[in-house]
Amino acid sequence: MSSVPSPPVTGPVKLLVVEDDDQILALEVRILGKVGTVQVARDGAEALARIQGGYVPDVVVTDVMMPVMDGLALARQLKLDPSTSNIPVVMLTARGSPQDVNAGVHAGAHHYLTKPFTPAQLLGTVQRALGR
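RESULT FIELD:
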């Protein structure tokens, strides 16, 4: 679902998980901790602040429906900034209709994964986003 292939990431991997649900966030951190270092944000605005503050992740995994700034707005903001436009964005959301997927891709998502998900699905999607 990626429009431009991501270059493979080698070395330590930095991930940013953006999720407002505590249980899902804990699950994602536990799963993605196997891939690399994980930082978290509770909404898109906090994620942008973290990135603008110097934490530039190799992949952003974001929910769509969140307070303050949703995942679609976050993806659009990342794609507008030349310094962050190449960061792969994985949408991980309960919204799975064709219209929702299209909105995610149009906003800049490289991959779109719906909840519920398995650990293998999440790991595989993030590995693809990393170009592995």
